[in-house]
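Notes from the 1:1 (GR / supervisor)

We went over the backlog. Supervisor wanted to see one worked example end to end before approving the batch request, so GR pasted a single chain during the call. The sequence is below; no edits were made to it. Supervisor asked that the structure be written out right there so they could see what the output format looks like.
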Amino acid sequence: MAEGGLVVGLVSEFDEVGDKLKALVIDVGEGAPIKVVTNAPNVGSRTVGKKVIVAKVGTEVDGEKVSKRTVGGVTSEGMLMDSKSMGWSGGAAGNAVLVPDSLAPGDPAPSSRPRMDNEASTEVPTSSIAADKKAEKEAKKAVAKAAREAKKAAKSKTNGSDENNSGAAESEG
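Structure output shown during the call:
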């Protein structure tokens, strides 16, 4: 788990700098943006405009301090965080953590995995989830009941017309 110096960053530029290495220019809310080199597989040109978690120089991550260093011929001034390094459950190891647009560059990194629906809240009350599931279940039941009733009505209508037709055929004969 990382401590201190973890902030939200807005990716403004992307450049491939070698086999699997990418250089990103990231606004971390300090005026001048920083450059971070990464090999995270989920980072690419589509990451421009997205928000990530950055460990700034001096931040301790998994027992080591992040330092300014040259990677692939480019100076890196931080490190992108993955779920494992953040101590969060879920998310693939090595994939850069993406966070919602509701967080601003320079904001402290959330302590738990935030929802990606742009809500300010990072936690969803369990009671809300349970109520949503219950409402969804009731709606499905109502749809199934309506379908059964429609099928039953159609069947009785068909059976009624069959009886009328068979009765007419018997009286003719």
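Supervisor's comment: Helices lie at 83-86, 126-172.
Batch request approved.
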